[in-house]
Amino acid sequence: MDKNDILQQLTERNNGYLLAAMVKENKISKAVLSKYVKEKGLERIARGIYITDDVWPDELYIMQVRNKAVIFSGETALYLHGLIDREYSGICISVPTGYNASHLKTGNVRVKYASKSSYGLGVCTVPSSSGNMVKAYDRERCICDLISDRNKMEVQNFQTAIKEYMSGKGKKLSRLVEYAEKLGMRDEVMKYVEVFG
User: Fold this and answer.
1) Mean pLDDT by 10-residue block, N- to C-terminus, for the chain (197 residues)?
2) How many Å apart are CA 124 and CA 138, to the nearest integer?
3) How far apart are CA 150 and CA 87, in angstroms?
4) Closest Cα partner for 73 from 91, 96, 100, 59?
5) 51 and 18 in contact (C-beta within 8 Å)?
């Protein structure tokens, strides 16, 4: 298989995205990549990220490719899991405490710092609205964070998310309680489990 075929396969497998990191992993030179990008009319949308002309840029996927530490959380994760019906007003991300996220703090990005012990708790991969796989907190971690941040959430989103989770078939109450214990908020979470569960 020649290098152009490999690049074509990489692009197809990645929903029309070609990442310089993938090209490097396949031991293909920058010169070959540059020639391929020109020949195929790929658009460079960020450093090391190219898309075909029929792909709409996926801001969540692009953000995560450029910042491996980013985990989608808050309203963004609730939306990705179908727990709220309105699209998020801003992108909510979590990063570990000490991570320099100043380059991420733009107008529509809210950064939450998580302790080293809680940062990795409940991470899963879910499809973005464009179908690209991104890292987000799972449904149970989202509910814990939702209850913890209830005073900062819109009342409608809070109520919708709690009701959707508690009435949904995929809820895992034992995992929810386990996370609540690890996050030091078991009593708060149990109030909602008793009312809605």
Assistant:
1) 90 94 92 94 94 93 94 96 87 94 84 94 96 96 95 88 91 94 94 78
2) 6
3) 18
4) 91
5) yes
